[in-house]
Amino acid sequence: MKIVVVGAGNVGSTIARTLSAEGRDVVVVERDPEAADKIENEQDVSVIRGNGSRPMVLEKAGVKKDGDVDALVACTDRDDTNIMACWLAKHAGVKQVLARVRDLEFTDTPDWAEDLGIDVMASPERSLSREIASLLTFNAAVHSSELFNGRAGSFAFRVEEDSPICGMSLRELGIKYPGLGAIIVYVERGGDGFVPSGDWTAAEGDLCFVVTLHERVQNIQKLFDVGHQKRLARVIIVGGGKLGTNLAHRLSSNVPKVDTILVEKNLTKCERLAQEFPDVKVINGDGMDKSLMTQLGVDKANGVVAATADDELNVIIAVLAKVQENVKTIAVVRKEIYEDLEGRLPVDVLVNPNKTLASTFLRYIRYPNSAGMLSLIDRIGAEVFEFTLRDDHPAVGKKIMDLNLPKGILIAVIKRGSKYLVPGGAETLCAGDAISVFAMSEQMPEAMHIFRVDQQ
After folding, report:
1. CA dist 44 → 19, 47, 69, 75, 335 (Å)
2. Taking all residues of the chain, what is their mean pLDDT, rounded to a whole number?
3. Residues 440, 187: contact at Cβ < 8 Å?
4. Which residues on neighbouring strands pair with residue 304, listed in sequence order?
5. Contact, 180 vs 211, CB < 8 A?
């Protein structure tokens, strides 16, 4: 399989490195000489130097009539380059084209992608704003991923010394809370990760990834953290870029009575944002200004989100805000180095839009026929796919416990008619059930084969 990646930035280099390691034939197109040299020296990929939106350059990469390119991913920092590269590739006969777009208008509806013939147009800012809003709403969570279009999700909670779950086995948890409606799909302990069995016992410091319905999350987090049950009342967002403004709009529109404050240094941008988002309090100032943050009530805030274009600045702002003990701090970082620092910095959550976008594109390349029903839990390298049980499926009429699923493959959520449920092992599957199956990424092909999704 031959894949062309346009753009050798953080997203492009991650995609190229991953696909190359999987044995794919990867060609990277990059116009910046320094970036082109870097990826050519560090990775086992072919490099074409030039502008990926020009036909002559793409032709050198193999994008041409009767060419051998199977997929093209355009992930530069320019929407026009990405869209043009995909349009040219599609018209040259490339089967699958994927574009990164930063302008949120392109992803408001699927019309743009359909009209241009682009298979996927993804905006990391939109998906990340949903994740951050969820992390603020369920403030004991340190990670979240949406499932079933937001009706359910994966949430990571830390076991504390005084957590009701501490010292309890998974089997005991099911007995004590039979109607909990949640499943622990993965646990991180001391740098190691595993899918827990029934005799696993929760210990202080364990990071548990729980799949449950959104309406149950508030009750679930009480089992892990008894001190973070306050209503979301005030959030300060530093950075009036696409991510910050999308998050501010999402919170002010969807969270009742939340005081949303957006801090931006550029006065002209502030004036425009104040008119565009009347429900958001837009402040012209510097998030590093201690007196300003004090005036804005950082000590009474539930959350501070640092979402400027500068990773280091975001980390510093979040660290300074964390001086306030009850404030949940979230810093947006784009450099890979911060993955190694996660858990070592006095910041509650680090989120990386580039990693989220790269994972989304990789999913579509790996599963071109089924990616539309796949979701990701990036933090642990796991995936969740959704499919509907047809009448003739061999799982119909069987209890989940009788399917003898391999360890690490779990049925996490079922949509039956208009109802959603997190099933136990005794649940009998019915024709028409929409099922969400969890698996680690390396087990996903096996899971899809077991449920015959790869044959649909």
Report:
1. 10, 10, 17, 19, 21
2. 88
3. no
4. 236, 329
5. no
Residue 406 DSSP label: P
Q: Which domains does the chain have, with CATH numbers?
A: 2-122 (3.40.50.720), 140-222 (3.30.70.1450), 231-356 (3.40.50.720), 381-455 (3.30.70.1450)
Helix H or strand E segment including 79: helix 79-91
Burial class of 23 by CB neighbour count within 10 A (0 to 12, 13 to 18, 19+): exposed
| DSSP sequence for 328-343 | EEEEE--STHHHHHTT
Q: What is Dmax (Cα atoms) for the chain?
A: 66
Helix (H) or strand (E) holding 260: strand 259-264
> Is the dihedral angle over the CA atoms 249, 255, 256, 262 positive or is it negative?
negative
Tell me the pTM. Answer: 0.79
**β-sheet bridge partners, residue 420:** 415
Distances in Å between the Cα of 297 and the Cα atoms of 37, 291, 292, 317 are 48, 10, 9, 15
- pLDDT at residue 84 is higher than 80: yes
Q: Both tokens of residue 359?
A: 């994972």
